[in-house]
């Protein structure tokens, strides 16, 4: 099981994945919502290295705009602790966007105390990943929701 801090994602994947093993994944995009550009960079590096297509938003307003204008987004990886509007408040707005199928939302958060997972799920998240991210769990969630 690989557990890495987000800031170490890029270095680890760059060194451990031969480019010839990366296949293009023909599926919907992943939307990363995180106000910390270092986290966006790290998550996008992991996704890119595995052939996933993605969009990134550093604010809730940007995220809602991307969701409304991109029907090919198939899952949201959302930081729950953002300054202007946290993920708990953003989830209902995402759920109001008309779509043929509801978009799965995975809470990605440093909030890893007892009860935090349940709080995220009660707010409407479909999944939960605590930071530092376990890459294997992330990839398993993506495979489950996107294929």
UniProtKB/TrEMBL annotation:
One of its GO terms (biological process) is phosphorelay signal transduction system. Residues 29-146 form the Response regulatory domain. Keywords: Phosphoprotein, Two-component regulatory system. InterPro entries: CheY-like_superfamily, Sig_transdc_resp-reg_receiver. Pfam families: Response_reg (PF00072). The modification 4-aspartylphosphate is found at residue 79. The keyword Phosphoprotein applies. This is Response regulator. It comes from Flavipsychrobacter stenotrophus.
């Amino acid at each position: 099981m690989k557990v890495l801090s987000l800031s170490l994602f890029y270095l680890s994947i760059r060194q451990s994945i031969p480019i010839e093993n990366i296949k293009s994944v023909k599926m919907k995009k992943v939307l990363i919502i995180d106000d910390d550009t270092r986290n966006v960079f790290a998550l996008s590096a992991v996704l890119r290295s595995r052939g996933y297509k993605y969009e990134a938003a550093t604010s809730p307003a940007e995220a809602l705009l991307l969701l409304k204008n991109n029907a090919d987004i198939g899952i949201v990886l959302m930081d729950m602790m953002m300054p202007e509007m946290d993920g708990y408040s953003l989830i209902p707005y995402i759920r109001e966007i008309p779509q043929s199928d509801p978009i799965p939302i995975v809470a990605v958060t440093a909030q890893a105390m007892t009860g935090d997972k349940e709080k995220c799920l009660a707010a409407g998240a479909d999944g939960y990943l605590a930071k530092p991210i376990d890459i294997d769990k992330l990839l398993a969630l993506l495979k489950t929701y996107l294929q």
